Amino acid sequence: MRVRRPWGRPPTCPGPPHILAPPEHARRLASLLRDTREVEQLSGFEEDSHWGQAATWLDMAAGLKEVTIDMSPKDGSGYLCSQAWPYDDAHSKTASIYHTELTRLLYTYCAIENVARALLWPTLLEDGKIEHRIIPHIRNFPVDRLPHYWCIIEHFYWHCANDLILKKMLKKFEISHGRPSVAMQAGIKLRHFLAHGVLRSPAPHHDGESWTDGSTNQTCVARHGASSLLFTTQMLIYNATLEGRLNFLDDHIDLREEMWVADSNGQHDWVFSMPVAEFLFSAHLTAGESPA
Asked: 151 is in which domain, residue-wise?
């Protein structure tokens, strides 16, 4: 399946099941990593291993509540304009909301780097570009079996196309158009934009009556970036499982709540447990509701 066009409006994802927000998605993958029995030469789960660190970073991405940023004057001076305080208050909220999601993006990036080093070591060199090392291992992933994957990509692209700075990312979408690696490359590129100071912190928005959060577009992009890297983590684990390089404590995953999911034939049903490989096609989904 190829990414659809045109990009004139944000696409929708109708019907169940729905995708988890990045914190819940990260929490579910962290739990899966801790169920691992063996990763290549490692025996057992070790907190100080790359695999253990990946789980820790995912736990942090899941547990991050808020980054608080105060944009008010620090010199103790008062406000000379009645609109100055509302502006600074909205500016603080805008920065806090946006940078909370950017920080979560960094945590998911740290997680996928550790997953990649655990699963691809020693082929993943310390000075090698992570995306170039990962692509061969997810090239044949059946991405059409990931519900809402393309919807995330479409949202990601739409937001970038409508942002002066993020337009620079569009080459990643064009180069990887329709490939499983498109999400990973876009998510990693966004992280690099942040690390190298390319991203801009948005100003508050005035709706005609008051100052409000002005980060809606940028925050959505940051969330999609985190989701894209979490999707790629699922792909890497799936590939390693199929190749027999990754074993779990149990061949099946017992779900905390039943899920409405599709099997390899596209047939939906309620399930209480599923094979690990099948779970990796559903780890990003909420329990969902039967369309009936």
From this structure: 22-71+82-279
Rounded to two decimals, what is the model's pTM? 0.84
DSSP state, residue 178: T
List CB contacts of 220: < 8 A, sequence separation 6 or more: 155, 159
DSSP code string of 59-126? HHHHH--------S-SS----SSTTHHHHHHHHHHHHHHHHHHHHHHHHHHHHHHHHHHHHHTTSS-T
pLDDT tens-digit readout, 64-85: 999 999 988 766 566 667 678 7
Residue 130: inside a domain: yes
What kind and span of H or E run contains 273? strand 268-275
Tell me the C-alpha distance between 241 and 239, whole Å: 5
SS3 19: strand
Q: Of 248, 135, 201, 163, nearest to 280 (Cα)?
A: 248
- Do 58 and 111 touch, CB atoms closer than 8 A? yes
How many Cα atoms are found within 13 Å in the side-chain-facing hemisphere of 73?
A: 9
Euclidean distance between CA atoms 66 and 99, whole angstroms: 9
Query: How many domains are there within the chain?
Result: 1
DSSP-based three-state secondary structure for 221: helix
Distance between CA atoms of 147 and 110, rounded to whole angstroms?
25
